[in-house]
Design a protein that fits this description.
It is a single chain. The protein has 2 domains: 1-18 and 27-105; 106-259, Thrombin, subunit H, CATH 2.40.10. Helices cover 35% and strands 26% of the residues. It has helices at residues 2-19, 28-105; strands spanning 109-117, 125-128, 141-144, 147-155, 160-164, 172-176, 182-187, 193-196, 209-212, 224-232, 241-246, 255-259. α1 (2-19) crosses α2. It is elongated and about 130 Å long.
Amino acid sequence: MVLTTGLLVLLALHLLSIGIRPEARASRPSLVLMEAFKPLLVVESQMADDASDFLHNYFDLVGVREENLRLKQRLAQLEGQQRQMAELEAENHHLADLLELRDALGTTAIAANVIGSDATGLSQTLMLSEGDRQGLRRDMAVISINGVVGKLIAVSHDAARVLLISDHNSALDAFDQRSRARGIIAGIVEDGLAMKYVERSEDIKPGDMIVTSGMDGIFPRGLLVGTVARVSREGPGLFLNIEVKAAVDFRELEQVMILTTRPPAPSVQANG
């Protein structure tokens, strides 16, 4: 069938070629064949045009997809750069706040990034990005813009470990800013703080601010430790049971400041 059709097409083309020679006149059979095969030739021409259009559209579509992919990749890159710039801006603002706090305290200090924490859960400690190369030593005070963080307990060349005031081994001399009652801040379970050795006769109320006394030789006087959350006189004993909410969220710390020298003791004002 295909062979017969092909032969007919060839025969028609041959007769048509004869008919279009300048010296020859078109014969009637050639005219008949021309009319008969005209639809076929039109269809063939249309199919060729359609195929050409299809190829052009295909390559155009491939180009559009490649351009779309390129634009998506560029957009992702720009979004990543925007996030990095926003993070850098936030870090710069936080660092500026730390430097302002340092100037207010009138001391020398070194800023450091928090690079890790105790994964065992046995102690409340953080790892810092600076060490003795930058002038850090054991027992230096560590603070943030919100309040007291802890003290350095280990220092290597380029890193240091800070014991948080929320650790049960920590002991921080502090007092109630309103009533002036003095006690020792120590860590308790669930990252909380307790103010110990405050006599039952002392005037301590929820909401009172607890600040450093400056009597431990590490922290300057008047740094915010936290706020009294609960006071109880229940049970036997000579002292109050006082829970304190830390001023610093230790789990959210990213940058801290280490006081390399003790500043002059700031004056402490009572709340009223």
